[in-house]
Amino acid sequence: MSLSSLTLTRYRRLIMLVMIVALVLITVELSGLREQMSVSFLRAQLEANPVTGVLAFVLVFVIGNLIQLPGWIFLVAAILALGTVMGGLVTYLAAVTSCLVTFTLVRGLGGNALREINNPWAKSILARLDTHPIRSVALLRILLQTMPALNYTLGLSGVPLRPYLVGTLIGLPIPIALYCLFFDRVLLLLPIG
């Protein structure tokens, strides 16, 4: 395959990725699901039935992460409905699932497109990621949690699935625990029932 056809294939894959994400966003907007992605909606789902509520919570977290919703909305709803510890654990489960789904979708559609960038700075960053992938992903998760831009970047970076998953599993508990403690304290001060 020639260099020009490889470049064309890469751009087609990236365009398909953008189109799929745009389709998800449009579907969520037109279906009215975006308005349902609120603390009160998520809390009601979790309180209504713990099993189906958790499944709905995970699904909505995945969709929310794909369309760039902040993760704290989900964490607050989980804390309100399930308490600090269980809310944190359910959020951790949903966050890991969301990161894994996003990674798989982005990698499947976009491949490792960032490897094709001919920039010394980008190559240096990717080399560090290659040298210590688990540590790099864990540190990025501690700093940026489930930030959608991070999920997309790591999906396109060429980092293998196993180090990505292990780094995510290691890196997410610290920020989630800190947010749980913070929101637990804030919610004690607010008159929320």
UniProtKB/TrEMBL annotation:
It is a multi-pass membrane protein. It holds the Pfam family VTT_dom. One of its GO terms (cellular component) is plasma membrane. The chain crosses the membrane at residues 14-34, 46-67, 73-106, 164-183. Its main location: membrane. Keywords: Cell membrane, Membrane, Transmembrane, Transmembrane helix. Belongs to the TVP38/TMEM64 family. This is TVP38/TMEM64 family membrane protein. It comes from Alcanivorax profundi.
